[in-house]
Amino acid sequence: MDLAAAQVIAAGLMLGFAGFGTAIGFGLLGGRFLESTARQPEMANVLQAKMFLIAGLLDAFSAIAVAIGLYFVFA
User: Fold this and answer.
1) Half-sphere exposure (CA, 13 Å, Cβ side) for 60?
2) Which of 34, 39, 57, 58 is 20 to 30 Å from 25 at the Cα level?
3) CATH topology assigned to domain 3-74
């Protein structure tokens, strides 16, 4: 296997794992948010703000992985 094929496979794996990890993270985050809001409805605003902060960090992780994967493919 030559270097270009290995780079394409590595980039594909990075993109796939980034998407899979982000999907699992968003699923867990949303489920825990709904569970905690159901337990303490008065804390919904505070929990929602924290949820969006963590969602941004999850999305940033996948965006960085996509950028590195595309760099491997086109560089």
Assistant:
1) 6
2) 39
3) F1FO ATP Synthase (1.20.20)
